[in-house]
Specification:
It is built from 14 helices and no strands. The protein has 249 residues and is mostly helical. Helix 6 (83-101) runs parallel beside helix 9, helix 9 (133-150) packs parallel to helix 12 (186-199) and helix 12 (186-199) runs antiparallel to helix 13. Belongs to the exportin family.
């Protein structure tokens, strides 16, 4: 990381990717996700504070700004199914998966806050794209990656925040096209993977309460302790009604 951030081409690549400049936007989703992961890891090189601030301003800020500008448009409900809009949403969700995959103990505090802002903004997207299983699955996949990579480092307050955003998104609460179950079971697999990751908090815990987040403002989580098992049981209650005999086969 220390070597690549001194390379002009790296900064150029970061700017082009952040602005979705051609031809980078044509890369496959897997490559886009991996590239985002690499750019985030590069940002944790040893840089002076001004350079680091500039780096994040050029890598992460445009991603967030473009996404918020898009979903906050007054006519978003009318344009959300347009191909260009869906491509932008999908590209952003792929990038979020890449950001989550870049999580390490020394960057989890920064990345968790950034991703929670995004996931809070995603509340409602599940409903908007309920007829687009690929997009819905990608939203769930962002949660899967965040839980998989970050929950082992989260103290109680931050875990509560993740549980709350997860429950507000009401992930997987309904599937409209029952006839196409066999083609759409991917959402259930993802939800079960998410529940498994959430449950892992009960036995894989590297957090020192919220020590890893010290210096950040603490929200009041007192008196609202919820175990990972409670959250998973809540999730199982969502999943079970969606299970049919044919689907289990």
């Amino acid at each position: 990381a220390n070597i690549v951030v001194q390379c002009e081409n790296w900064w150029s690549l970061a700017k082009q990717f952040a602005s979705r400049s051609p031809p980078l936007h044509m890369l496959s989703s897997t490559v886009q996700r991996t590239l985002m992961k690499a750019l985030v890891l590069g940002g944790f090189a040893h840089m002076d504070s001004d350079t680091k601030q500039q780096y994040w301003a050029e890598v992460l800020h445009p991603l967030q700004q473009r996404f918020l500008n898009l979903i906050n448009q007054e006519n978003f409900a009318q344009i959300c199914q347009e191909e260009a809009v869906k491509q932008e949403i999908v590209a952003t969700l792929e990038a979020l998966c890449g950001i989550a995959e870049a999580t390490q103990i020394d960057n989890v505090a920064s990345l968790f806050s950034f991703l929670m802002d995004f996931l809070s903004s995603c509340i409602g997207l599940m409903e908007v794209y309920r007829n687009s299983p690929e997009t819905v699955n990608l939203i769930i996949e962002v949660f899967v990656e965040v839980a998989h990579k970050q929950i082992c480092y989260l103290g109680e307050t931050k875990s509560m925040k993740l549980y709350e955003v997860y429950s507000k998104n009401n992930l997987g609460r309904k599937r409209l096209d029952v006839a196409a179950e066999e083609d759409q079971y991917q959402d259930l697999l993802l939800i079960m993977e998410l529940l498994t990751n959430l449950l892992s908090k009960e036995f894989i815990d590297f957090s020192d309460t919220d020590e890893v987040f010290r210096g950040q403002e603490q929200s009041s989580g007192a008196g609202r302790a919820v175990s990972a098992a409670d959250v998973v049981l809540y999730g199982v209650n969502i999943v079970l009604p969606l299970m049919s005999q044919d689907l289990l086969k």
